[in-house]
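Weekly sync notes, structure subgroup
Attendees: PM, AL, DS (notes)

Item 1: joint prediction request from the bench team. They want all two components modeled as one assembly rather than separately. Inputs as received:
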Amino acid sequence: MGEKAPHISWGSIVGAELIVLYTLTPVVYLVSLSLKGGNADVNQGGFLPHDPSFTNYDTVFQFSLFQHALFNSFGISIISTVISVVLATFAAYAVARLRFRGKKFVLSIALAIAMFPVVALVGPLFDMWRAIGIYDTWIGLIIPYLSFTLPMSIWVLSAFFREIPWEMEQAAEVDGATAWQAFRKVIVPLAAPGVFTAAIITFFFAWNDFVFGISLSSTERSIPVPASLAFFTGASQFDQPIAAIAAASVVVTIPIFIIVLLFQRKIVSGLTSGAVKG
Amino acid sequence: MASTTTLEPTKAAPGGRRTKTRTPESAENRLGWKLAGPAVAVMLLVTAWPMLRALYLSLFSYRLTDPDNRELVGISNYGVVLSDSLWWRAVGVAVFIMVVTVAVELVIGFGFAMVMNNILVARGLVRASILVPYGIITVVSAYAWLYAFQPTTGFVNQWLHLDPGTNLFDDFWGSIFVICLAEIWKTTPFVSLLLLAGLSQVPNDAIEAATVDGATWRQRLTKVILPSMRAAIMVAVLFRALDAYRIFDSPFIMTGFANGTAPPSGLVYNAMIQRVELGLGSAMSVLLFLSVLIIAFGLMKLFRVDLSQVRGD
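Output from the run, pasted for the record:
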């Protein structure tokens, strides 16, 4: 990041190890817990399994609520991400490039919603969604996700739009392109990395949401993954579902790991873009 | 506003060869709203409208299961909530979690940012690993910490050679301690990334000049480095503080809001979704919203910065 010549020092090596230890220990523990076979192994404590097996994963995938939850979460998260990014691209373009009355209003709304206490909305939404019949449906979750991912996407994207050389769009317009063509042919390709970043962050939000999930869905029709984890009962009602929950947790963390490994650079730039311009 | 945005229209306007409309301003106005309108509409649909409805419902005594007995009670719901010590306890819990976690996150986050700013080896690995807690589902992180600290399943008691029966979840302070740990673990990466971005903005010549002038490391830190990171620190504090105050997932999973660990969002959820007390719950929702506003404005006043400027607009 910095222009300072990086140097290999003992301090930074130890520091790097500490960071990795800090970030991964709970995750490794969860994996280890998920591999513990039988209640005796689970309840003897300790970090590593004594009798490792994959039975917990079998249990999890036989649990139909969890299967549905995985399907719902993927579907809902991807649809929310696509819609959110499309709407945010338009809005961010307007904010970064156009002068129109109410621009400050758009930004203030986005800022206010980023600060909004989600829980304060679930009651009224619960009531309204039941009244219009979209309680416990995909769309009933997609709409709330959208309104909370839009502010983030608008910020990330408008930060990207501001860095795009404006002259190119102007040149396109001088060459006879309409504003819309200039936008589509010149700006959109240049902004693609930003769009992608916004998409990843949006996906994280939707995949992570718990409050809307437990309040606005109730059955396998729409229940998302985090909510299903909280309602996990294991193979039998009397069985300790701890290791099974751990296995389910590992399963739902795998997509996150893949995304992080593939796109870490983009996520970092997206999270910090615009934050430190001042 | 970025300076470029204010310049563009005047640059574009004079040519006016393609006269789409009468005045360029109104065309730009309409295009602006055509593009931003749908996003604004969706954002308002799920926030402004339900919030207004909550404001309205909060004036009623209304249980979803007993709609016939719905009656207008005015502001008495607010009186009930505000005179209940449970509400104030919840606010206290959330403020405690907010202050502790944000303070610890700033310190650890700054340390991590310094390390990441300086390392050459294993940069990708460190960066990827720091994104893991950020990306992981909060519920999953809550389970990991819950099980790690439980006397039967956990390893913490063994590693720390505690009495095997020690259960931190037996009482308030133990529960809050683990809830804070989980929160800190999950969100320090976000803070450290913001601070890392802030660090990269610190002018190197200023640090060198200070070094030449004989400033100690501590002086360089407090006089040069931290002041030039002000914007990044402010954004981190504001966003993290509001998030921590609204905490919900971890206490829900770890304690089920037992032992007095319910934050205000927990009380709202219990009233609204568990007991379907829409009137009382709506009043709590409005109060939660107001308290978030108060914290947001308080922090902005404290930092004397307009957040919209920091965000670059």
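Discussion: Chain A touches chain B through 120 residues (CB under 8 Å).
Action: AL to compare against the crosslinking data before next sync.
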